[in-house]
Amino acid sequence: MDKVQEISELLKEIKRKVEDLPAEIRIAANQINVTTLNEISESLGLIRAGELRVGTKDEPGKGFTGVRIRYPAMTYEGDTWHLVGVNNDVLQVGLSAEDGKLYAAGGKLIVDQDAMTLEGLLYAMTHEATVGANTRSAWLGMWTPSGASSPTWGIIFSGGTTGSNLVTNGGAELGSLTNWTQSGTAYSASTTSPNAGTYCFKCDAITSGTETLTSDRIAVAAGTKYDISCYTKDTIPETATNITATSITDVYLYQADANTNKDAYAFFSVGKDAAGLVRSVLKADFSAVPSYINEVVSSYLYLHQYNDLVQSSLSVHAYRLKRAWIENQATWNSWKTGSTWSTAGAFGSDDCEQTACSTSAITLSAGSGRAQWDSITLDNDLVKEMIDGTFTNNGWLLKETTEPALTYIQVDSSEETSNTPYVSLTYNIKPDYSISVKWYDDPSAGSLLRTDILSTENSVVTWNKQTIQAVAPASAQSCEIIISATSGAVFYVDDFDIHSIAISESMWFEDDSINTTTAFVAGTDTDAAELSKDYIQFPRLSETERDALASPAAGMVVWNTDDTQLQVFYDCDWHSLTASTGAV
To answer: Domain range spanning residue 538?
Structure first.
């Protein structure tokens, strides 16, 4: 009886303890409940199938947040995983025991047997190092440069001292203006660049003339092919500027009084009155407009008509003048005292262009006595030429197209106190700059051997990489990078780099991909389309570039662009391989 009582009490104690055990850990398929992790011991044996779950009480698929370890694998994001961390049933990190695939950062990082994939605009890899009191940091990742429409790869480097380099293996990535010589004061270090400003120079607005910036000498090897590149950005986009040219000189030319200057009159006329033909010459002062403008967007000549007589219709056009007429001397017969027009009335081919520079004229229908503002639309490109000096600004001849009888207008002249003529302009500014490379036969001084142009741009409004490939001239030992900017230029130059290129990099297949393992083998392909894909293009060099190659190896083959021949190097000289029997 005592034994029965003892067993009964023991069963009650076991029941009470079982009821108190929280379901902290569940192991399926045969569920075993334990109170603490240290109770999971060898006595449980080998668990061949099941799940270990730590997290919220919600079931997976019903808002579970926590960690799951399971075999067989679970499915998330269309893939299978043996260990996962989820937030409200959304996969944040996953690991597959079968192929080692890793899913992390909510899918921003994936590592599998093919590659490591990083997604998004971020600097995903960071490296920081400290030596003594100096700490440098570098970030590697993707970002979208200012004004760009697509992301790009790059490195941010910070903590460098003045003049330090990010890449030092033969590079010319200069860290400050201490490595440059200036001809003026328009250049400064900047904080705006593709690489966060560490390697950027800004050319401030130049008021006149040309400024130049010259880098330190960079050591080069004669005959070596170099790739020289930099990023540039012009900070002046196409912005329209309006200006009104009110400084006007004008005079009318009267056939009926052919030798009398009419400058003193408060009006000028165009057309034909009862006594004869009448034309006028007019010039606008464009000195307030910068000569380096990129384009004229619009241009109008405004005239205030105070009287007219039109029997049928009238059309007045403007023609660019070739003579430097003088306002208080010009007449119907002469453009200045003692110098006659080639044709009286100033419409000879040596006096003015025979094609109007106006795209629309002053047109009037029959009538008389009108007082109003009229305008002539000028050709923008031809006006720009008058501003930048391509065509000397001598103004315009105003002439009625057919000059019928008793058809003319009278216009307030510059002698009036109001309603005087003026020209209205809208123009854009895109100042020019250039980047060039100069090669010398000495590391620090010496003679200039050659100059190559890296870039000549007018307003690159987004960061743009400029690159040239050039073979250093024979006897070259150094080069300089030269920046020249014209008046009005505001631009950034960043990330200069110069490095040598192995001659093998000039060999490629038609699809432009270098292939070092598979080449065309004669006779192995019979399909013509396939053969066209598998040819080899040899390095294309001028004779000067070929002769500048340092110690070419026997058997090297190049295409000589000067002689249009395939040539091979052996017996210390170049020999032609081109057949002499003509085309095949």
So the answer is: 505-576
